[in-house]
Amino acid sequence: MRKVFSSVELSETVLVHDALLHRGIEASIQNRHSGHTAVPAFRPPSEIWISNDSDVDQAVEVVRETLSTLDSTADDEPWTCSQCQEQNPKSFELCWNCEHASRTAGD
């Protein structure tokens, strides 16, 4: 097992984790609940660990791509899901609420 990513932002960690799984890279999140500790000064970052060391190069590239996408779309206007009407960040391809893929190319 190898750590390929860590962040104090659980949402960011989950997005990277999901991108890895989507690419077929077996990964797990450690310290997922660290944001819920009773002592605010002691909140270790959540971490992503991959199961197979042979996947490390591909995993690092997926992490880079995902973070690059998040950075490039952080200030873009959100889109509204046609199924449930929830607002989604521009970088999301699926609705966070219902997982409906309501965006079209070019949105």
Structure write-up:
The chain is an alpha+beta fold and 107 residues long. It has two domains: 2-74, Alpha-Beta Plaits (2-Layer Sandwich), CATH 3.30.70; 76-107. 29% of the residues lie in helices and 18% in strands. The protein contains two helices and five strands. It has a three-stranded antiparallel β-sheet with strand order 1-3-2, with helices on one face. Helix 1 (10-22) crosses helix 2 (56-73). The chain is globular, with a radius of gyration of 15 Å. The protein starts with a strand and ends in a 19-residue tail after the last strand.
Structurally, the number of domains stands at 2
Structural class: alpha+beta
Our Rg estimate from Cα atoms comes to: 15 Å
Instruction: Quickly count the helices.
Output: 2
* CATH architecture descriptor text of the largest domain: 2-Layer Sandwich
- What's the count of strands? 5
Q: What is the CATH class designation of the largest domain?
A: Alpha Beta
Write the layout of secondary structure elements.
Layout: E1 2-7, H1 10-22, E2 27-30, E3 46-50, H2 56-73, E4 79-80, E5 87-88
Antiparallel strand pairs: 1-3, 2-3, 4-5
Helix pairs in contact: 1-2
